[in-house]
Design goal:
The protein is an alpha+beta fold. The protein contains three helices and four strands, in the order βαββααβ. It has one domain: Dimeric alpha+beta barrel (Alpha-Beta Plaits), CATH 3.30.70.1060. The chain is 32% helix and 35% strand. The protein has a four-stranded antiparallel β-sheet, with helices on one face.
Length: 98
């Protein structure tokens, strides 16, 4: 099944919006099961969350757009921009989150 990268960038000074929607976002990601292959926040040079990235396994770009459009972060108006890009895994050398 194809892989897609969703990349979101937060609006400036959107920490409170992110914090308010975080629990709902994580619960939503949990409903995706194995489709959500990898994800996490982008960080600025001080370690603050400024966006998110997720790799989704789905049958089509349309299916990923539907996931994207239902994400609680998006529904809360957190993102300044987002992209969805088809992607192919070529190298995998890490064992997990730190």
């Amino acid at each position: 099944m194809p892989l897609f990268v969703i990349s979101w960038r937060d609006k400036p000074d959107a920490f409170e919006t992110r914090a308010a929607a975080r629990e709902a976002h994580l619960a939503f990601i949990g409903t995706l099961g194995d489709k959500a292959r990898l994800g996490g926040p982008y960080l600025d040079d001080q370690g603050r969350m400024i966006g998110s990235m997720m790799i989704i396994e789905a049958e089509s770009l349309e299916a990923v757009r539907a996931i994207h459009d239902r994400d609680p972060y998006k529904l809360a108006g957190l993102f300044e921009s987002s992209t969805i890009t088809p992607w192919r895994l070529t190298v995998q050398r890490f064992g997990g989150a730190s």
